[in-house]
Design a protein that fits this description.
The protein is α/β, with parallel strands linked by helices and 167 residues long. It contains 7 helices and 4 strands; from the N terminus they run ααβαβααβαβα. Bound molecules: thiamine diphosphate.
């Protein structure tokens, strides 16, 4: 959902941010490597990603020793595929959790430590803004926001229609 949320909520502005979207044939694979490729020898960059998408490509972190530049990864960790909560099948559990949401219960602090990547849990918006205000020049870091995919889906279902009608 992160890329869809950006489409819904990112207001036009003149900040000169260059967005890249890893869409391809809709695959979630390779997203981390794409972001590292974009950030390599370039401006400090930010990747906004879901947990399953990041997990699909964690070995992308192995380029770390050759990577020149900075990448901040904003990880929306809702423990599984939040996108599937938007489908009618979400009402049917089983099989929803095991076969659609596929939560992996990963401790990202430990995972990042394995790859020698910085990791931090973000608890509030002020903390996030502060972290993004001025990006470092080097290294890779993960800023993890823990969210609840069910609550988020309900919020979208309750509110997106209203915004579309402008009421
Ligand atoms: C290579 C590949 N495998 C599986 C899928 C099916 N798929 C689409 S979205 C998604 C879940 C993504 O989960 P996450 O990155 O945690 O984001 P969220 O849905 O929670 O926003 C999956 C498995 C895909 N698009 N590409």
């Amino acid at each position: 959902m992160p890329v869809r949320d950006v489409e819904f909520f990112w207001k036009p502005n003149n900040l000169q941010i260059k967005p890249y979207v890893n869409r391809g044939a809709n695959g979630i694979d390779g997203t981390l490597s794409t972001a590292l490729g974009v950030a390599h020898r370039n401006q400090s960059s930010i990747l906004l990603t879901g947990d399953l998408t990041l997990l699909h490509d964690t070995n992308g972190f192995l380029i770390k020793n050759k990577f020149v530049g900075h990448l901040t990864i904003i990880l929306i960790n809702n423990n599984g595929g939040g996108i599937f909560e938007m489908l009618p099948v979400a009402k049917f559990d089983p099989p929803f959790e095991e076969f659609f949401a596929t939560p992996q219960d990963i401790n990202f602090a430990q995972l990042c430590a394995t790859y020698g990547v910085e990791h931090e849990i973000i608890d509030d918006w002020e903390q996030l803004k502060e972290k993004l205000f001025s990006l470092p020049n080097n290294g890779i870091r993960v800023l993890e926001l823990q969210t609840n995919r069910r609550t988020d889906a309900k919020w979208r279902q309750d509110n997106l229609g209203k915004f579309a009608k402008g009421s």
